[in-house]
Write a structure and sequence with these properties.
The complex is a heterodimer of chains A (about 110) and B (about 280).
Chain A (H helix, E strand, L loop, with lengths): L2 H5 L3 H11 L2 E2 H10 L7 H13 L3 E7 L5 E7 L1 H33 L1
Chain B lengths: L1 H17 L3 H16 L6 H20 L4 H5 L3 H10 L6 H24 L5 E3 L1 H26 L9 H25 L6 E3 L3 H19 L6 H22 L6 H31 L1
Antiparallel strand pairs in B: 1-2
The chains are: A alpha+beta (about 110), B mainly alpha (about 280).
Chain lengths: ~110, ~280
């Protein structure tokens, strides 16, 4: 299975988590995701997602002058976004626990 | 304000585009064309802002040695479609303004070309309506051809020759339709504008259109002013000649030709200046 397919449901949370740490623009965000190990992620996935999150008012985009000169669109997390992220984190922990237990059980059965 | 925002980002984008390497520029050009031709009913300001953001980030990626394909991926059409589907649609008021603009240009050109002839100005409202429908179909077709040809892969529409043939076909259909319409459509509610009211009507049209285009600095419509004023001047000369029974004298035969040539030379000089200013920028 492709990593991108697995990621589909959780990328929103990952992007929100990064934006909650710091104000960030598109290119920087793509690089942060790659640095975090999501090497297959490209701008073609991230920009529509940023737009969707902005439309849902989970993040806010503001055009600002960058240190390098040109105007850039910087994203910050909103109060709704923080709420969504908290809920995502607890659901994610819950899911990881369940999947881990299931996988460990399968592994033990195979060893027997 | 929205129009200014679209123009603001369009101009900034053009400047950014010049800084892109050829490979990245081609990728960006296609993306930009596709998004613009796919978003006729969407907010132009938002579309241009989004494309500007992509261009800006691509430039940052390029500075780090990353190509457009590496940065955006191999499916730019999918990205563009997703971005457009989430864009706010233009309001009914904005769409109405766009339709009025097209109607205005079309009817203005038709009226002024009627005025440029020697006879009395006569308007067939049904023919004017027919032209609008025809223009609507032609504009939609042109946008569709342009949009479908961007990411067409190796299909027939991706070939330049196919696109040219399609565009010419649309153009021929429009011209043939318009010309046959003016002969075949019944002249039921004919409006006659006698001299000197035709002159007054054209003067008003020139003043309002000129002021509107110049005050709003709609640079893309400046060439239209040359056509408008040339036709108006020729029509004015011809009406004056007819009113004074001078239409066959060498002066009034030669004057319209001189006006057309002078307008053409002025247009060339103006166009050259624009190109020079852009290259100096």
């Amino acid at each position: 299975m492709k990593e991108t397919q697995l990621l589909k449901g959780v990328l929103d949370g990952c992007v929100l988590a990064i934006i909650s740490e710091q104000e960030i623009y598109g290119y920087e965000l793509v690089q942060r995701l790659k640095d975090a190990g999501f090497t297959t992620i490209v701008g073609g996935t991230v920009y529509p997602l940023l737009q969707k999150l902005e439309k849902q008012k989970l993040i806010k985009g503001t055009m600002k002058k960058s240190a390098e000169g040109p105007d850039r669109k910087y994203f910050t997390i909103t109060a709704d976004g923080k709420g969504y992220l908290d809920s995502f984190q607890s659901q994610w922990q819950n899911l990881v626990t369940k999947v881990s237990i299931l996988m460990e059980g399968i592994g033990e059965n195979e060893r027997e | 304000m929205k129009e200014n925002r679209a123009k603001y980002y369009r101009e900034k984008m053009n400047r950014l585009e010049e800084q892109l390497l050829s490979e990245n520029r081609q990728y960006f050009d296609e993306l930009r064309s596709y998004m613009l031709f796919s978003s006729l009913l969407y907010d132009e300001g938002d579309i241009n802002e989004q494309i500007y953001v992509l261009a800006n980030d691509l430039l940052a990626a390029q500075a780090d040695g990353i190509t457009a394909v590496e940065f955006f991926g191999n499916e730019p059409k999918q990205m563009a479609d997703e971005l457009i589907s989430n864009m706010p649609k233009s309001t009914w008021k904005e769409r109405g303004q766009l339709v009025l603009l097209v109607f205005g240009i079309l009817w203005g050109i038709k009226l002024i070309s009627n005025f440029g002839r020697t006879g009395t100005v006569m308007i067939n409202p049904l023919s004017y309506l027919f032209d609008v429908v025809l223009a609507g179909v032609a504009v939609t077709m042109v946008f569709l051809i342009a949009q479908k040809s961007v990411y067409a892969g190796n299909t027939w529409i991706s070939k330049n020759s196919s696109q040219i043939i399609l565009m010419i076909t649309v153009f021929v259909i429009f011209i043939t339709g318009s010309v046959s319409g003016s002969f075949l459509i019944p002249d039921l509610w004919r409006i006659v504008i006698p001299y000197p009211f035709d002159l007054a009507a054209i003067l008003l049209l020139c003043i309002f259109t000129g002021a509107w285009i110049l005050f709003r600095k709609m640079t893309e419509f400046y060439p239209l002013l040359f056509v408008l004023f040339t036709y108006a001047l020729i029509g004015g000369i011809q009406r004056y000649a007819v009113a004074h029974q001078q239409e066959s004298t060498p002066l009034f035969v030669a004057l319209p030709i001189v006006v057309v040539l002078a307008a053409f030379v002025l247009y060339l000089i103006w166009n050259r200046r624009i190109i020079k200013n852009k290259s100096n920028f």
